[in-house]
Fold:
Amino acid sequence: MGRLGVDLYPLQTGVGLDRVESFGKFLGGSPANVAVAAARLGLRTALVSRTGADPFGTFLHRELKGFGVDDRWVTEAAAYPTPVTFCEVFPPDDFPLYFYRLPKAPDLEIHPHELDLGAIRAARVFWATGTGLCAEPSRTATLEALRARSGAGDGGGDGGAGRATVFDLDWRPMFWTDPAEARPYYAEALRHATVAVGNLDECEVATGERDPEAAARALLASDGGTVRLAVVKQGPKGVLALAADGTRAEVPPLPVEVVNGLGAGDAFGGALVHGLLAGPDLEEALRRANAAGSIVAGRLACSSAMPDPAEIAEALARGTGTIGTGADGTGTTGTGTPPEKG
Structure:
């Protein structure tokens, strides 16, 4: 549930937008990318979001269907244009983003009364993000969806097969006046989540802690005690996960020559969802999620670059996120490390 828009990525790297001559057009928005990533791994996925009543909205519906993501809960908000996001590509670790979401993005116009709470309760995994809390009516709708999950007895998500309610901290400073504004809403969302996922910056916003171990413990100790698994992404240092039952896993990243790191976190998220449903091996789930993130960091696009199971298996066998180059330029070769957030 959450952000959906069009990503326009420069086809020339290492130069500013003022010098870019051509762009590739892709489906974008972190929750939408997570849904695509999970679908690539064989899961049945759907997205709750909105677009404008414009050609970009038509494009996004077509892309979602093409990726196998159910778009029945993606509706039009005719008063607002479909958002567009530009980025600059300066590998290996500088990818400035420029969001065009004014006067307001349609995905922030999700109203509580429009939610299909029956479908939200029934899903084995529900994924919501911090961005959805930055404005009304999306804020109330996001929290109502999360409350519906906890009201349905959602107690899974500790690394074993079952149900999970995932709150992706997804901190985007340009959507808020300051971190203090966001913290109460993040705290309320965490009261209804069973899995919390974020990088170090996002954990600091949510908990005040930047040390990975302390941040993970703080997420597990969130008021309400529903969080059963805390996943802290550390960029080149890999990922740390702590479960409420004491299980701990820490996995290093796969080396890759970074082309565009903006989709790595979303690929990680889709693979994490697959791992939460697949079984109790937390370390294996993190290894596969790290591999997915590394693969996408070595490609230009986000949504269309999401790997399938065979690509993840090949990357793990090779010990690198590099697994070849596609005709659309979505692959690369070499070594390096992916950034921490997509």
Q: What stands out?
A: The radius of gyration is 18 Å.
